[in-house]
């Protein structure tokens, strides 16, 4: 311990010896203090203030972010801008000043920093969508739980939609509103209150219900107007959502207010010839609306809007718009008395032991009440039936007026749909219109004949393009079906009083049988997958089916069916020469047809032989009749072809060697049916 104290005393004495008398350091030769034989520590300031070489930009470590993967599947390396790096560098002077708590240079700067509020935090789009979903869900739950108390939230939801700029959140608002309205809309129509009704004092419950109903109608009107405005903006992202909401409202609450506005939105969308997802959705919604409409009032309004739109567009619309008329309920409900007479169901009598004893006065009152209830029930049923029949009659009149105008003006795009509609509504057409309809159908068949004749000229490119565009041959077959169906239904109702000759349509059907059998697209429709012939320079165009996507063989079978099996009584009996000529030509056509078409036509031949066995027997058994002349297979008039003289049906001998066993078996059945007496 003594040694340590001596060493300390020596160090202190040596330090005091080096100090001057005034307590300063000993000056050196260059004027600087020397401490323990060394220069003062201020010499380091010169080195600190000396200029240094800047680091090259290439030497800096280039900041990077994590790589991302694009929608195309490529991996892209993101790089951070230099300004952002310098701003975010932890060693900057500004950061050091803030961390060290250095005071600003002036009092004004200090006051400005104190007064400036911190910027609001930026929320990502995804976070905003999540928060909007939660808010919309809470609003919807509150309204559904107590709609009569929380109906003001409907206006709040509309304000959120109007003030929002994000398209995704606006879509959510539209979908939330449509779901709310579908749940809280009552099952009746709300009418506006009159001034007298508003002046009457009512109970609190009634006043509460009235306030809710009026507010609901007002909010619903605002929402429907918004849907109409958005649906007209085709380029907008909200247009498909608005169309979907409109269709949902029309199918779920068609009884409520502003039904015409919803139908108007859908009809305006159907006026476009661009068939997309929104167009198909509107068309399906309109068809479902026609099928579910019981009173017929909504259907009448929709049909009138469609007809008005067709006139405004000069009938330049897609054919499927006209096909929506086939979904009207008047096809099955107009003129059905059986269902009206069977409304009242028989009730079971109450047993004696279950009867409650009543006094004479109570029995008399109960009896009078039953009479009054029966009369009221009958009166309500009659009014409903009469109103429905009146609406459906007006709808039918509007539809027929449209069909007749299309036939007279020969609108090519809608001709097939019109003919199919006439065939469907044939049993509802008045006899007074028969002459005009048949004249229009005959003109169409004549146009088809003329086009077929011009088609044989290879240089006439325009006629070939017209035939492919309109498919007049198919329209002619539809004319035949429409004409015979028209008279078949009405002749049965009129008990044979309709005497109209339809031989013109039968002759045309006979003339196109061979041409149809040679058609390569007889079993194809516009929906069929078909590849072009690689060895042919010109591709084969599939005929565009106008209605129901039926093929040519289906239309041919329908035509044969209405001519020979469903012909009206007033058209007269079919002659033997005509039946024999058709039998011969149908047998010839089976040799050229594919397997399925051949089987279908052989089945029609078998039924024809069974129904007209005596008329076709000479074609199969030559001993029954002897005739003069020769058979002409190329003439287009069946009565002039002379089929009963040497026109034996030898085609079945060739069909006996057909590659298909089903065809061989069906051919044997045809021969068997013809030989049977």
Summary tags:
chromatin binding; nucleus; Nucleolar complex-associated protein 3; mainly alpha; 677 residues; 5 strands; ribosome biogenesis; 60% helix; coiled coil; 3-stranded antiparallel beta sheet
Short description:
The chain has helices at residues 2-18, 43-48, 82-88, 93-100, 107-115, 125-145, 152-163, 167-184, 195-199, 204-232, 239-252, 259-270, 277-292, 297-312, 319-323, 330-333, 337-341, 360-409, 415-424, 434-455, 461-470, 472-494, 503-511, 513-517, 552-564, 576-590, 595-611, 613-620, 651-655, 661-675; strands at residues 26-27, 33-35, 38-39, 68-69, 75-76. The model is unreliable at 20-33, 85-114, 336-347, 458-469 and 540-547 (pLDDT under 50).
Report on this model:
- Residues 131-223 form the Nucleolar complex-associated protein 3 N-terminal domain.
- Strand 1 and strand 2 form a beta hairpin.
- Helix 6 packs parallel to helix 8 (167-184) and helix 22 (472-494) runs parallel beside helix 25 (552-564).
- Strands 1-2-3 form a three-stranded antiparallel sheet, with no helix packed on it. The protein has a two-stranded antiparallel sheet with strand order 4-5.
- It has 677 residues and is an all-alpha fold.
- The radius of gyration is 46 Å and the shape is flat.
- The longest helix is centred in the middle third of the chain and has 50 residues, at 360-409.
- Among the domains are: 127-187 and 207-254; 427-526 and 541-675.
- It contains 30 helices and five strands.
């Amino acid at each position: 311990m003594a040694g340590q104290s001596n060493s300390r005393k020596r160090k202190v004495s040596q330090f005091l010896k080096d100090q001057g008398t005034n307590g300063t350091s000993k000056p050196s030769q260059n004027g600087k203090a020397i401490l323990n034989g060394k220069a003062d520590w201020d010499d380091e300031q010169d080195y600190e203030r000396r200029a240094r070489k800047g680091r090259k930009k290439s030497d800096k470590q280039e900041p990077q972010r994590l790589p991302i993967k694009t929608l195309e599947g490529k991996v892209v390396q993101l790089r951070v801008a230099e300004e952002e790096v310098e701003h975010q560098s932890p060693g900057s002077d500004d950061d050091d000043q803030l961390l060290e708590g250095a005071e600003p240079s002036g009092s004004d700067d200090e006051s400005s920093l104190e007064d400036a509020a911190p910027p609001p935090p930026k929320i990502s789009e995804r976070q905003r969508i999540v928060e909007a979903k939660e808010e919309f869900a809470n609003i919807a739950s509150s309204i559904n739980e107590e709609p009569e108390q929380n109906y003001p939230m409907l206006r709040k939801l509309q304000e959120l939609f109007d003030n929002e700029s994000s398209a995704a959140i606006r879509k959510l608002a539209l979908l939330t509103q449509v779901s709310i309205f579908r749940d809280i809309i009552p099952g009746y129509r709300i009418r506006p209150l009159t001034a007298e009704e508003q002046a009457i004092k009512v109970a609190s419950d009634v006043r509460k219900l009235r306030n809710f109903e009026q507010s609901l109608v007002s909010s619903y009107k605002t929402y429907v107007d918004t849907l109409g405005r958005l649906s007209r903006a085709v380029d907008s992202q909200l247009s498909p959502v608005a169309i979907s909401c409109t269709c949902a409202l029309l199918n779920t609450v068609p009884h409520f207010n502003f039904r015409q506005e919803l139908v108007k939105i859908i009809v305006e969308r159907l006026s476009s010839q661009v068939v997309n997802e929104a167009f198909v959705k509107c068309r399906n919604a309109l068809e479902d609306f026609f099928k579910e409409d019981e009173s017929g009032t909504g259907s009448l309004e929709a049909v009138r809007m469609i007809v008005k739109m067709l006139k405004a567009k000069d009938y330049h619309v897609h054919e499927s718009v006209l096909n929506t008329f086939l979904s009207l309920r008047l096809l099955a409900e107009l003129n059905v008395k059986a269902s009206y007479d069977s409304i009242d169901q028989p009730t079971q009598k109450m047993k004696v032991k279950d009867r409650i004893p009543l006094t004479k006065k109570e029995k008399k009152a109960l009896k009078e009440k039953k009479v009054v209830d029966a009369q009221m029930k009958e009166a309500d049923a009659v009014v409903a039936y009469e109103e429905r029949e009146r609406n459906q009659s007006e709808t039918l009149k509007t539809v027929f007026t449209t069909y007749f105008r299309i036939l007279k003006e020969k609108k090519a795009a809608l001709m097939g749909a019109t003919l199919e509609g006439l065939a469907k509504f044939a049993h509802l057409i008045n006899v007074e219109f028969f002459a005009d309809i048949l004249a229009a159908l005959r003109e169409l068949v004549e146009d088809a004949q003329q086009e077929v004749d011009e088609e044989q000229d290879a240089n006439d490119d325009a006629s070939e393009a017209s035939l492919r565009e309109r498919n007049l041959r198919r329209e002619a077959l539809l004319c035949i079906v429409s004409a015979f169906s028209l008279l078949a239904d009405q002749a049965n109702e009129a008990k044979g009083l309709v005497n109209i000759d339809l031989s013109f349509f039968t002759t045309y059907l006979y003339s196109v049988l061979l041409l149809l059998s040679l058609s390569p697209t007889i079993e194809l429709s516009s929906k069929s997958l078909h590849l072009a012939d690689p060895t042919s320079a010109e591709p084969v165009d599939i005929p565009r089916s106008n209605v129901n996507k039926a093929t040519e063989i289906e239309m041919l079978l329908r035509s044969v069916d209405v001519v020979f099996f469903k012909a009206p009584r007033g058209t007269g009996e079919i002659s033997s020469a005509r039946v024999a000529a058709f039998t011969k030509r149908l047998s010839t056509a089976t040799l050229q047809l594919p397997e399925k078409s051949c089987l279908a036509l052989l089945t029609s031949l078998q039924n024809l032989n069974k129904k007209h066995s005596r008329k076709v027997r000479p074609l199969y058994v030559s001993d029954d009749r002897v005739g003069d002349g020769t058979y002409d297979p190329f003439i287009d008039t069946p009565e002039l072809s002379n089929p009963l003289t040497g026109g034996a049906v030898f085609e079945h001998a060739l069909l006996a060697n057909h590659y298909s066993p089903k065809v061989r078996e069906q051919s044997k059945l045809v021969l068997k049916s013809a030989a049977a007496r």
